Hints:
Bound molecules: fe (ii) ion
Strand order of the largest sheet: 1-9-6-4-2-3
Largest sheet: 6 strands, parallel
Distance between the termini: 9 Å
Radius of gyration: 21 Å
Strand content: 5-15%
Number of helices: 16
Oligomer: single chain
Mean pLDDT: 96
Number of domains: 2
Structural class: alpha/beta
Amino acid sequence: MTVIDVTNTLGLGLLRQPRTVLFGPGQRRQLPHLVTPLGSTVLICTDERMATTDEFREVRASLEDAGLTVAVFSRVQPDLPRADVLELVAEHAGSGIDVVVGLGGGSCLDMAKVAALVLKHGGDINEYYGENLVPGPGLPVITIPTTGGTGAEVTCISVVFDSDRKMKIGVASEYLEPHAAIVDPELTLTCPPGLTAATGADALSHLIESFTDRSKNPSSDEMAAHLYVGKNVLTDIFCRAGLQLLGSSLERVVANPSDLAARSDTMLASFCAGMSINTAGTAAAHAIQSPIGNLTHTPHGIGVGALLPYVMRFNLPANTAAFAEMAQLFGVATPGASELDNAKAAILRVEELLAALGVPLNLKDLGLQPEQFAEVAASAMLATRLTANNPRELTADAVVKILEFGYADDRSWWEI
Ligand SMILES: [Fe+2]
């Protein structure tokens, strides 16, 4: 195994974050106070289901009661098709929008971020694909998530599905950072079980990947050019809090979806995960999931969740200390046990949490076929933005091995 020094030799910490974050049951009612200083005309981006709810009507009425002009785009679809971004812009360009509010799941929040960008700077969203290609701040964005998982409420990236290229592509820039986020756990009470599972597994994967990432120890030029610096002292604070919260709340949410205290803990953990990946970045599980998602149309969180047991085992020898600390955070560490044994206990605990969510712990159930392994591996290796964060050097051969073990449902090993 090629040994990579994963330690943070610079002692670096880096966060990007909204100016205001408001957390707590019922806090969505503060929205007019956040919007009013920013302008008089607000565009809400949401989806068709959300637009029929009492919560949406209440939010809209609160803005109108504050004297604001409200426009709505309520046709945001999952995976955010580029065509929908073009449609929104055609509908609302030149109509004097001052503020964009994203209300819904990750796609609604991502739509708000790219809509605010294109309404301000013009053009087609495909001109901004990639890292740091946005020329300046867009319109101010306020995010209000209704699922506990993606972290999109605080991240400065939007992911768009481009049907011309038949793939999802990110627009990543610090100028996409939302102005404010309102995280109101009451909005997740009606989140259906399948979506709760997928987003919960996604949040768990964000915390695990950013906590076990390598520290990249970037030069100042690299810091200026790239958004993700790997594991660092500030993201670790959010990871520790998030892992503790998820470890004690995910099973409670599954057992009783209307448990507001458990929903609050999951939502807070998801926010912590978003804060962490926004500068640390994710790693191998996300790199490998993306092509699997394209081939099998598996929900993102289910795909990364199914990969986690295998990717964590692969990464275990490269960052054993971080995995062992996760055991402490989950409350499954044995005093006096070796670092390696505690690290293994953390991985077994993650498997328990994923199983409780109903995430398949193998890749066959996702619909992946062995003849697709080479294609998935080649595609994963192209996601250098993610693979560069992984604590252990990832090769195409290693990805194929991970896929083979995952397909065979074989977790009887601790080292490749
Ligand atoms: Fe994710």
